[in-house]
Prior knowledge:
disordered C terminus; 5-stranded mixed beta sheet; 12 helices; globular; alpha+beta; binds adenosine-5'-diphosphate; 15 strands
Amino acid sequence: MPTIRRLPELLINQIAAGEVVERPASVLKEVLENSLDAGSRAIEVQLQQGGVKQIRIADDGCGIDKDELGIALERHATSKIASLDDLECVATMGFRGEALASIASVARVTLTSRAQGSPHAWRIHAGETSPSPAALNSGTVVEVSDLYWNVPARRKFLKSEGTEFGHCDDAFRRIALARPEVAFQLQHNGRVSLRLATGDMRRRCGDILGEEFLEHARVIDVEAAGLRLSGFAALPAYARASRDAQYFFVNGRFVRDKLIQHALREAYADILHGSKHPAFTLFLELDPSGVDVNVHPAKTEVRFREARAIHQFVYHAVSRGLAATIGAVAATAPR
Length: 335
Ligand code: ADP
Ligand code: MG
């Protein structure tokens, strides 16, 4: 008979890491979301060797108290929810309290932070028991080095530096797109690759997708029955060969959702033919209780309580937005 035993904490975290920490880009996503949840207004990311060697992220958020630095690295430790009720109306990007513990189980992690009102900063290396004094003006610096140094099987699946950087760049853009009120900077191997000043949504979309996208895009802004859809949907002239310019956010969270994809395909069906894909940056806002984000650890999938209503709403908002300005095209298109 096989013996049943309890797995050690480190192994538990490494198993969980398999779900959340797929590659450097997934680490970047998690730490960026933490910086946003901390109320940061300016975030700087430095990557070395596609993020495999190091991901360093510095923010100006609320910081972490000296006594909580160690707890932040523990599994199921979070400041964001305390009860099931909180979970049902969660407004932060994180809430599972797993990311830092998972990351720290497959990489070397250091947290340096100065909590608001604290006379100076403290630093902890994951695995150590107590923090030591450090120098930092405000906010938090998270350093994640040597991803998968202790999991060779996983390290083998990492791609070239350029490919991993590309994924990091994608993750960075997805997050920055939804938060135009936050300034972002991305560096790779010591060189600035993207700098985003604060501004309005139009400016941020232009900075990330390019002015040409905006020139071809129609403004979408529709509100009804507690739902709001805003953003930009490009006309067929700007259609792409791939889905690289499709950004859909639910309450500020980038999601890939079959229902939404279907609604958008339908909305474009009359005006976009062939194998081209539409380009859009759309932001759906609804009461947090109307959407379950606790479906998948990476939270890119969601479940809507009123799925049909959401589908209808998105479909009508986009198809009307597109038709209103290209009446001539819509009129000649087959019904
Ligand atoms: P979650 O985000 O789900 O709460 P994490 O493991 O990502 O779980 O983070 C654990 C906790 O560490 C967070 O709840 C938060 O209190 C704290 N934390 C992490 N990163 C930061 C940061 N950049 N600024 C302030 N607090 C942070
Ligand atoms: Mg988190």
